[in-house]
Amino acid sequence: MPKEIERKFLVKSEPDEQIVLNRNHVSQGYLKIGIDYEVRISNKLHLTTKSGFGLTREENIYDITPEVYEALLPLTAGKRIDKIRAVCQLDNGLKAEFDSYLGANEGLRTVEVEFESEEQANSFVPPDWFGEDVTHISTYKNSLLAK
């Protein structure tokens, strides 16, 4: 299974607009939320499975059709999150996904950075606009925020 190596942070301040590459609305609905496993669909027409917790997780992403998305969406009632995502270019060639949550999680802002290796993740020095590292705090997992 493919691995996702990612760190998640709270946000102290908005990123400089000059580093924002794009913004879009992301809606994720959860079909299954387990202790260390989740299955979700997104308005980007993906079905994603994730397992594990913390820095390194197993992740699989499958493309789905609009019809499949619409058929599965009712199964996610009460287990959805909506956010505005800004993809930002960082100085070290990495990209950050800055999320401003909507709805029940309004006001929460997080930023995630994916890495090629655990060594790269562990040596990452976050920019000044990043806040507390919440990678290992389960209450900031999107699947729990969706409840």
Describe this structure in words.
With 147 residues, this protein is mainly beta. Strands 1-5-4-3-2-6-7-8 form an eight-stranded antiparallel barrel. The radius of gyration is 15 Å and the shape is globular. 16% of the residues are buried. The mean pLDDT is 95.
CATH fold naming: Hypothetical Protein Pfu-838710-001
* pLDDT < 50 runs, ≥5 residues: none
Total count of domains: 1
Strand tally:
9
The structural class is mainly beta
CATH homolog superfamily: Hypothetical Protein Pfu-838710-001
How would you characterize the largest beta sheet? 8 strands, antiparallel, barrel
Q: Could you tell me the strand content as a percent range?
A: over 45%
Give the count of helical stretches.
3
Label the CATH architecture. Answer: Beta Barrel
N- to C-terminal separation?
Answer: 27 Å
| Name of the CATH class | Mainly Beta
Order of helices and strands: EEEEEHEEEHEH
Q: Strand arrangement, largest sheet?
A: 1-5-4-3-2-6-7-8
| Rg from alpha-carbon coordinates | 15 Å
Fraction of residues in helix: 10-25%
* Silhouette: globular
Mean pLDDT: 95
